[in-house]
Design goal:
Elements (H helix, E strand, L loop, with lengths): L2 E2 L2 E7 L6 E2 L15 E3 L5 E7 L7 E9 L2 H5 L6 E2 L3 E2 L6 E2 L10 E10 L2 E3 L5 E5 L12 E2 L17 E9 L3 E11 L1 E6 L2 E2 L15 E8 L7 E10 L21 E10 L4 E5 L5 E3 L4 E5 L3 E5 L18 E2 L1 E2 L6 E4 L5 E7 L3 E4 L4 E18 L6 E7 L1 E2 L5 E2 L9 E5 L6 E3 L6 E9 L10 E8 L5 E5 L2 H16 L24 H5 L6 H14 L26 H13 L2 H22 L36 H21 L6 H19 E2 L3 E2 L4 H10 L7 H15 L14 H7 L3 H8 L7 H6 L30 H9 L3 E2 L6 E4 L9 E7 L4 E8 L3 E8 L4 E6 L7 E3 L2 E2 L6 E7 L2 E6 L2 E8 L1
Parallel strand pairs: 1-11, 4-12, 18-27, 24-34, 42-46
Antiparallel strand pairs: 2-3, 2-5, 5-9, 6-7, 6-8, 6-10, 10-11, 10-12, 13-20, 13-26, 14-19, 14-22, 15-18, 15-20, 16-17, 16-19, 20-21, 22-25, 23-24, 28-37, 29-30, 30-35, 30-36, 30-37, 31-34, 31-36, 32-33, 38-43, 39-40, 41-42, 43-44, 44-45, 45-51, 46-50, 47-48, 47-51, 49-50
Helix pairs in contact: 4-5, 4-6, 5-6, 6-7, 7-8, 7-9, 9-10, 9-11, 11-12, 11-14
Length: 912
């Protein structure tokens, strides 16, 4: 067989943890990652992408080599695992099957594939590093100060940062140096005065009594022979809770604490450990005198020490570090990315106010902070206060922040120009009030630092409709703003909690924009670990707030996230791991809440935040009102039974399948008996009450058309083309309308500019997504201007239905492309970077012609639906369809022809 000149991109995944290495195979060069991912999974998932220009390329076999050294790998010696030639098309879920891996072991691997077009050369090498697999691998002790100091204010939760340092000596040449750190709640690590890594607000938050994430860094380049110093700065984060006043509601874990070990491997092969113990020195007397996620950070530059994290610093006034109680959670390598400063933006204007105040406008609602450049006298206090919007008089509007102060304070040390940004807080804002700044404030003095989890944007969408494009952009900003080591609801007020109810389908839509698999895999673990022994799942996970209300629709997100991850990644282990816990919750709800009518009607929130009838009806009114709905609860439970029936078969638990099927069948009978009305509607006849039975398949066959007609009537006539759904109904509305043949009506909803709609937000100045449809008039108590929950299934509809990029259910190994070529929309251009590779769909139409360009990655096939009933109307690359390589005619469905295409780029033209 011929050798292929393909590019193979290696993707290493440990429960979908990605490591990338890429190089042109033909030149036989190797490129290793500088910073191997550290994992503690003994059977990682190996994946690769194939980049080939040929059409219809499919893998027929693979050969994986895994070695303990790069030298062995270059000799094609798989001393850890040699898979041999395996006949398989699998390129995304090959599980390591070799020798047991050891703590701190470096592992190197590569792959060679066979395809229907030939055989590739060996790929470039990639590597990973094993973490600390056992509790005893941590030889240090937890250190800290479990007490308040005079620098702290226990009443307000303003606890000063803790500083720790340790000096040591390197006497011989170093071959490698790795540092393992657990700094809680947040840390910054320094070695010889230089910060280690570019992460911020690390590590990711968890319930620290259940699990603790550790980070690992290769610090070889920062070491030299001679005297050295480690420095660690600890902030509060979620460990010392932002609010202490309600212990019955808010979970807190104590004072900041640290465990660290630096492992030095010398050139002669010997190792030495530098670890946390009571030989370290610590203090709270540093320049960060307060730090709190809600309230901000206070920094007194006059208290800075020069060289505190360098050898030779005089720490005689520092305290001896104390041994403290460990948090209790299991130690785990952090697979999801830390947060980073991902973008920088500049203010678009500065407005001078009275009393020496200025207001900066960054032109965009985002999450992060500002970097300030300032010069003035020592002791000058500059205050930075943050808000999402302004009052009519141009002052900051902060009422919707509740009691979050959202204020940073910097005290100048004086002298040369000073540059500062906070370390242990973040804000959700567009506007910043600057108070006390010496001299005239200029926009060049401030830089907006956009902070979210370090993940790639993998989806793109644009169209001929500028409003659709702006909503997509606003969605990107809201999603990014609320990725904080977990998906939170909002970045600005005194909440910022990982509510389950915000993301049953929104998370699925987010996955088309961001490479968020690791984040949601981590969140799935947060949910599992928050489950009570009896099966109850909270409304917030990690359960920083103790809310276990036992409704169905909020905790049910556990199943929806598992489904989304499996659908997008194909990693069956996600389902296998969580299946017992999902089943336990389903049984808990059935046993505890099924009533005599066979209905599980336990609900807490109803269709949360549905829009008031008019914008004036909601003016000044609080949206924080609950309208429990037994229909929502029962409908969701029915749908979740269907998921569990599928999960049971996929995870070798088929014995449970009959129980889920029979329970669902009976629930469908009982549901229709209780909620269906002969006039052709469900429940209270609200839009949501009719959407759910229609989408979930609860409506009896003879009633489907009537219920569908009722949905259309509500939207088209009674709502004049608007929605009337809250967070529940909005998760299903766009796909339901499309599924019943009214994509045109879905498009009308998506492009409305009047209340209530996404366009109404844009028309009223929104640069992100509001929490409420009437966010410009509602009472500010619950009125975030940067939320994701009202996105519902909108982004899914963008990508799957307008662009036609949809998985066949197997992580895009098969692709379904059935765009809605709606009237009024002239073109769409979208792409999505799947695990298989980039999928693109770009179409443009006029009255006589539809041009549709699609890109299908190697090792996949796509079923495409072409809107014509005559094959003679279709050409590809100016050739008749019968003359085109890689295109197969399948069938005719109504007024569409169904074709199958292999990998490659295609340019279809369809006469209209």
């Amino acid at each position: 067989m011929k050798r292929l000149r393909y590019l193979i991109i290696i993707v290493f995944t440990a429960l979908t943890c990605h490591v990338w290495a890429a190089v042109g195979v033909a030149d036989l060069r190797c490129e290793l990652l500088v910073d191997p991912i550290t994992i503690d999974n003994q059977q990682p998932r190996l994946s690769w992408k194939i980049n080939a220009e040929d059409r219809d390329v499919s893998q027929t076999a693979y050969h994986v080599l895994v070695s303990s050294s790069l030298a062995n790998l270059e000799k094609n010696v798989g001393d850890l695992w040699d898979s041999g030639e395996v006949a398989s098309s699998n390129s995304i879920s090959v599980y390591y099957g070799g020798k047991a891996l050891q703590s701190r072991q470096a592992v190197f691997w590569k792959v060679r594939i066979s395809t229907n077009k030939g055989v590739s050369a060996w790929s470039s090498a990639a590597s990973w590093q094993m973490g600390l697999l056992y509790y005893k691998d941590w030889t240090g002790r937890w250190i800290g100060f479990d007490e308040y100091f005079k620098t702290d204010n226990s009443a307000t939760g303003q606890v000063a940062a803790r500083y720790f340092r340790k000096e040591f000596t390197v006497a011989k040449p170093i071959k490698k140096a790795m540092v393992y750190v657990m700094g809680l709640g947040l840390y910054e690590l320094y070695l010889n005065g230089k910060k280690v890594g570019d992460q911020v607000l690390a590590p990711s938050p968890t319930d620290y009594t259940e699990n603790i994430k550790y980070n690992v860094f290769d610090v070889t380049a920062l070491l030299k022979q001679g005297d050295q110093a480690l420095g660690v700065l600890l902030g509060n984060g979620r460990f010392y809770a932002m609010r202490q006043a309600k212990p019955y509601k808010v979970k807190t874990f104590g004072f900041p604490k640290l465990q660290l070990q630096l492992i030095l491997t010398y050139a002669d092969g010997r190792t030495e450990w530098v670890k946390t113990d009571d030989s370290w020195k610590g203090t709270s007397e540093g320049p960060i005198t307060a730090n709190n996620e809600y309230d901000g950070e206070r920094y007194d530059a006059r208290k800075e020490w020069s060289g505190w994290a360098k050898a030779g610093f005089d720490d005689s006034q520092w305290l001896k570090a104390r041994y403290v109680q460990e948090p209790g959670g299991q130690y785990e390598a952090q697979l999801n990315a830390n947060m980073k400063v991902m973008k920088e933006i500049s203010p678009v204007s500065v407005t001078k106010k009275g009393n020496g105040r200025y207001v900066l406008d960054f032109g965009q609602n985002f999450a992060g902070w500002v970097k300030m450049r300032v010069k003035g006298h020592a002791g000058t206090v500059v205050g930075l206060r943050f808000a999402e919007s302004l009052t009519d008089s141009g002052e900051l509007f902060t009422t919707n922040l509740r009691d979050a102060k959202a204020t940073d304070e910097y005290i100048l040390k004086g002298g040369e120009e000073e540059e500062w940004e906070p370390r242990f807080t973040y804000h959700g804002f567009r506007y910043v009030e600057v108070d006390g700044f010496p001299g005239e404030v200029k926009t060049s003095d401030f830089t907006g630092r956009v902070v979210y989890d370090d993940m790639a944007t993998i989806g793109s969408f644009s169209s001929s409709n500028t409003l659709l494009n702006q909503i997509h952009q606003n969605a990107w900003w809201s999603i990014a703003s609320n990725y904080k080591g977990m998906p939170v609801d909002c970045p600005q007020r005194n909440e910022r909690q990982p509510w389950l109810g915000d993301r049953p389908m929104s998370a699925y839509g987010e996955s088309f924009l961001f490479d968020n698999t690791l984040l949601y895999t981590k969140w799935l673990e947060d949910i599992r670990l928050s489950q009570q022994a009896d099966g109850a799942i909270p409304d917030v996970a990690p359960a920083f707030w103790r809310y276990y209300s036992d409704n169905v629709s909020w905790p049910g997100t556990y199943l929806f996230i598992a489904e989304m991850l499996f659908k997008q990644t194909g990693d069956i282990r996600i389902l296998k791991k969580h299946y017992p816990y999902m089943k336990k919750w389903m049984d808990y709800m059935r046993v505890r809440y099924m009533d005599a009518e066979g209905i599980i009607g336990k609900d807490s929130y109803g269709d949360w935040c549905f829009p008031p009838r008019t914008i004036e009806d909601g003016r000044g009114k609080i949206a924080d009102k609950k309208y429990p709905s037994a229909l929502i609860s029962a409908a969701y439970y029915y749908h979740l039974l269907g998921l569990m029936e599928r999960f049971s078969k996929l995870t070798d638990n088929a014995a449970d399948s009959d129980t889920f099927t029979s329970t669902a069948a009976q629930l469908k009978i009982d549901f229709n008996k209780k909620f269906y009305h002969a006039a052709g509607y469900y429940g209270t006849n609200s839009l949501t009450d009719n959407l759910l039975p229609l989408y979930f398949g609860l409506a009896d066959a003879q009633n489907v058309d009537k219920v569908a007609a009722r949905v259309v009537t509500i939207v088209e006539k009674e709502n004049n083309g608007h929605l009337s759904t809250g967070v529940v109904g909005t998760q299903w509305i766009m796909r339901t309308l499309t599924n019943i043949g009214r994509a045109d009506l879905a498009y009308r909803l998506a492009t409305k500019k009047t209340y209530p709609s996404w366009g109404y937000m844009v028309e009223n100045g929104a640069t992100s997504i509001w929490e409420l449809w009437n966010g410009n008039t509602a009472h500010p108590k619950m009125n975030s201007q940067n939320h994701v929950m009202m996105l519902g299934d909108l982004l899914i509809w963008y990508y799957e239905h307008l662009a036609g990029i949809q998985s066949g259910g197997d992580a895009f190994q098969s692709i379904v492309m059935k765009p809605s070529f709606v009237e009024g929309l002239d073109d769409v251009d979208a792409s999505y970077e799947s695990l298989q590779g980039k999928i693109s769909s770009s179409w443009k139409k006029n009255k006589s012609l539809l041009a549709w360009h699609i890109g299908i990655p190697p090792n996949t096939k796509a079923t495409i639906y072409v809107p014509t009933s005559d094959v003679a109307n279709i050409t590809e690359g100016d050739k008749k369809l019968t003359q085109v390589e890689g295109v197969k005619y399948l069938r005719k469905e109504k007024d569409e022809l169904v074709l199958e295409v292999g990998s490659g780029n295609y340019q279809f033209k369809i006469k209209r």
